[in-house]
Amino acid sequence: MLPKFAYVRASTVEEAAQNLAADGAKALAGGSDLLGCLRDGVFETPLVVSLSGLTSLRGISRTRNGGLRIGAMTSVADVAADPTINELLPGLAQAASVVASPQLRNQGTIGGNLCQKPRCWYYRGEFNCRRKGGGTCYAMVGENEYHCLFGGALCYIVHPSDTAPILTALDATLNITGPRGTRSVPLSDFYVLPADDATRETVLEQGEFVTEVILPEPASGLRTSYRKERDRGAWDFALAGVALAMRLDGGRVSDARVVLSGASPVPWRSREAEQVIEGQRIDTAVAAAAAEAAMADARPLGKTGYKVPMFKGIIEEELLAIAAS
Ligand SMILES: Cc1cc2nc3c(=O)[nH]c(=O)nc-3n(C[C@H](O)[C@H](O)[C@H](O)COP(=O)(O)OP(=O)(O)OC[C@H]3O[C@@H](n4cnc5c(N)ncnc54)[C@H](O)[C@@H]3O)c2cc1C
Ligand code: SF4
Question: Which of 106, 131, 204, 252 could form a disulfide with 208 if both were Cys (CB 3.0 to 4.6 A apart)?
């Protein structure tokens, strides 16, 4: 059962920011994650501020400089189906199309997808773990098969979003509004590693919320892709995933981005893999070397060792596929 909380449906961005400034207030977009957290007692809130009346935050359009603007309240399904995204940035459409299930993609928004809470079962259960402000990480020596290989310290979650890795690879920037005005944050600086603060996932301050995702103009020859492996064929988070964005000039890679999902508490950019492929023609040897490099510094927990060969396999396959596309 949902606990009691006050509810406001904001009709302007400013009204939403003012209400969200109240201590502990939470933004409600599609509710596919927030309502579950409240129902299960993961956290409490005195006030839920619905963004559903902010029609200006829905929709996808071109920016004046040839990029793309995706309103934070745009549904994940609309991102997956958008013709411009499918034509210019198919990797983003692929990522959106494998989020959860059709119902959740219709209900869930891109802003909510980027700001969703972790899926660690201790966090979602009745454990006062470090992420909730307690003193222990129960996953470190417990049931940790869905946890991280990189960037873990104090807390070992993986970031659950499928769209965050490809948007990171595409150099997306988030526009953020709060009680003190607006600011822009590159998505690569938006997420917080547990070593910096194990109790927060993003740099958002109380009262701030994401209004827009801004993408730069796609470079000529840009190729993009996203793939994830999961336990079930649908309605499931990534065990291992890889987002790719790169240009091929005369068959050689330039400006490569390799970003992993299911790997770290944040979308994990593998500069090691990027360095291997940069300037190269991707063949089986280069793809295998990049996959090895991506996993060289992996630090599996007791039950996450299976992810290492899984990542190597999908990185290798996806590099070969994007080179042949
Ligand atoms: C069964 C199930 C399976 C799922 N599978 C996947 C999956 O495979 N891949 C995946 O990526 N996700 C998955 N999800 C997670 C999630 O529900 C969706 O990603 C969805 O897009 C979240 O969007 P929402 O609008 O419903 O968010 P909400 O539930 O409304 O919000 C989620 C969180 O983000 C905050 N928030 C929402 N909008 C904003 C904003 N604009 N600015 C700042 N904070 C904001 C809320 O306060 C809340 O904490 C799954 C969820 C469920 C229940
Ligand atoms: S991994 Fe993080 S969220 Fe999970 S139990 Fe440990 S501290 Fe809590």
Answer: 204
- Residue matched to tokens 């839920």: 48
Q: Are the C-beta atoms of 146 and 75 separated by less than 8 Å? A: no
Does an H or E element contain 224, and which? Answer: strand 222-229
d(CA 160, CA 241): 11
As a whole number of angstroms, the distance between CA 146 and CA 175 comes to 31
Residues with beta carbon inside 6 Å of ligand 1? 26-34, 36, 51, 72, 76, 99-100, 104, 107-109, 111-113, 115-117, 160-162, 204, 209-210, 235-237
Burial grade of 31 (CB within 10 A; 0-12, 13-18, 19 or more): middle
Give the model confidence (pLDDT) of 121-161 as tens digits.
Answer: 999 999 999 999 999 999 999 999 999 999 999 999 999 99
Strand partners, 153: 155
Contact 194, 132 (CB under 8 A): no
What contacts 32, CB < 8 A, 6 or more positions away? 100, 104, 107, 108, 112
Strand order in the sheet with 252-261: 222-229, 240-249, 252-261, 268-269
Q: Which two tokens stand for residue 20?
A: 């969200």
Which DSSP letter does residue 130 get?
Answer: G
> Using an 8 Å Cβ cutoff, are 185 and 174 in contact?
yes
The alpha carbon of 113 and the centre of ligand 1 are apart by a number of angstroms equal to 4
Q: What is the pLDDT of residues 77-128, one digit of tens each?
A: 999 999 999 999 999 999 999 999 999 999 999 999 999 999 999 999 999 9
How far does residue 227's CA lie from ligand 1's centre (Å)?
A: 19
